[in-house]
Design goal:
37% strand
């Protein structure tokens, strides 16, 4: 089941997304988390914490969950 994460801006970075989705407790954990876990954005492996996620992007983290970014703009 996909969980929807709503953003109020044009985009959100992958690091900010992980915190908003409660995958990590603080933004400082993003670099460590991405070095230890595979993260797929729209079925492509990506581990850049600055990667911009926009409305409709799908984030899959094996053993954690699948999320869809939704803009409220």
């Amino acid at each position: 089941m996909k969980e929807t994460i709503t953003i109020t801006t044009e985009y959100i970075t992958l690091g900010q997304f992980l915190k908003l989705a409660e995958v990590i407790q603080s933004g400082g954990m993003a670099k460590w988390f991405l070095s230890e876990h595979e993260v797929y954005i729209n079925q492509e492996l990506d581990q850049r914490r600055g990667r911009k996620l926009r409305d409709g992007d799908e984030v899959q983290i094996p053993d954690v969950g699948t999320y869809v970014v939704k803009s409220s703009e």
